[in-house]
Amino acid sequence: MGEVNLPEGWAQTVISDIADVNPKKIEAEAEALSGFVPMSHAPTDFNGTLSFEEKPWGEIKKSYTNFQDHDVIVAKVTPCFENGKAAIVRGLPNGIGAGSSEFYVLRPAIKEVSTRFLFSIVKSYKFLQEGAANMTGAVGLRRVPRAFVETFPIALPPLAEQKVIANKLDTLLAQVETTKARLDRIQQILKTFRQSVLAAAVSGKLTEEWRGGETLDAKADLEKELLFKDDKKRKIEATSSHELVVDNFSHAWAETKFDELYRFIDYRGKTPNKSESGKRLYTAKNIKMGYLSNEPIEYLSEKDYKSWMTRGFSKVNDIFFVTEGHTMGCVALNDIGSDIALAQRTLTLQPYGDVCTKFHYYFMLSHSFQKLVDLNATGTAAKGIKASKFRGLPLPFPTYKEQTEIVRRVEELFAFADRIGQKANAGLERVNNLTQSILAKAFRGELTSDWRANNPELISGDNSAEALLKKIKAERAIKGSGNKLKVKRTKR
């Protein structure tokens, strides 16, 4: 933050010289209303708002970190620290509160020290980067040591300049956050756009004009497709609320069922034994909405693979579907091949004939189909849809030619959305970098160079940072640091 060549009137120091880290417990009546702040209530944005729950002080004072209005709180545990969870405490009932034990509390040593300037220090890239590098503890539960916070070096501006810097940061970073919010909204807009494309695709609206110039016979193509049908009889249970999707099918299309077009490959019994190597195992955790995830990476031994995969092997362009659990309904396309193992709670749909599986894959991604699956699922804590129910779910069947055209148009529009999304993400990355660039300029004194030139009397002599440090030291010697705050009960 500027250990050498400090701006005029500034001083080199550390956080503990200007702030008390984790001051003493607050004394207040047990009935006094206060604010409770779990880690989830702490914002990550620079201008984010700290939210709290109102609770009697007696319920939270002992087991949680104490703080008061105008303190700065910052997360000390991973990943909350790296995510920048921190806030200026404001507006608590009776001015007091308590929260997660994973917060550090920074309280200005004297009231003149700018809380906003102190907050900007813990939001800086240098503080976050070095804090993460100095974490201690076991993997997954690493924490920033208190000593790191207390000895973190800072370039301290004079008091008047701290306030000017804080005002400039508020203005500039509010503009940055506004831009960031707009870029974030683009992703939601694109998500809505993709669903609109799917809705148009699986209802026939996307190819309505194209279909008008073609001589098509969907029923004839379906009859050809059914020639490939497996003759094995399967149990099919009546499904409910077909109108959710059937009413949206184009009248130019034929209607069929999953059971007539697809072989069902699923795996039952005990969970297969995992291995350190062998065939890559894909579980329900790997099947996301619209793609296959590489995490977690698990394997099935070659020996167990042969005895487990007795129901069949998946092929490229088969459809994977999660049949139960909190990710029920997730759909992905096999773009890997047959040399893989599949686990329980997954279903592979393998076409008997020439149907374009990508068309039905997009159909299964649509909101209307997902709602139909949910309505036909059973259970509460872990909902699931039985294979016998799934087999009877309705499927639209355009001609082979239109299936191909629909897939082409969907992929073209999705590619367009992806390009916009990539540009938005690149813009978001630049905006995030801009925040840290502005903070770095602030701590080098670059945001206030003109102000210093116009106000030399406010940065020298008794108004310098060195004078401020002497004042803090003197006041601490008189009253001691971290005095307890006494609060009277306020009735509401």
| Cα-to-Cα separation, first versus last residue | 45 Å
User: Largest sheet, order of strands side by side?
Assistant: 2-10-7-8
The averaged pLDDT comes out at: 90
Main β-sheet description: 4 strands, antiparallel
Summed up, the helix count is 17
CATH class of the largest domain: Alpha Beta
Structural class: alpha+beta
The radius of gyration is 31 Å
Which parts are unreliable, with pLDDT below 50 for 5 consecutive residues or more?
A: 481-492
Number of strands: 24
Structural overview:
The protein is of the alpha+beta class and 492 residues long. It folds into two domains: 11-157 and 471-487, DNA methylase specificity domains (Adenine-n6-DNA-methyltransferase TaqI, Chain A, domain 2), CATH 3.90.220; 217-398, Adenine-n6-DNA-methyltransferase TaqI, Chain A, domain 2, CATH 3.90.220. It contains 17 helices and 24 strands. Strands 2-10-7-8 form a four-stranded antiparallel beta sheet. Strands 5-4-9-6 form a four-stranded mixed beta sheet. The longest helix has 45 residues, at 159-203. The model is unreliable at 481-492 (pLDDT under 50).
Which key features would you list for this structure?
17% strand; Adenine-n6-DNA-methyltransferase TaqI, Chain A, domain 2; 492 residues; alpha+beta; 17 helices; disordered C terminus; 2 domains; 4-stranded antiparallel beta sheet; 4-stranded mixed beta sheet
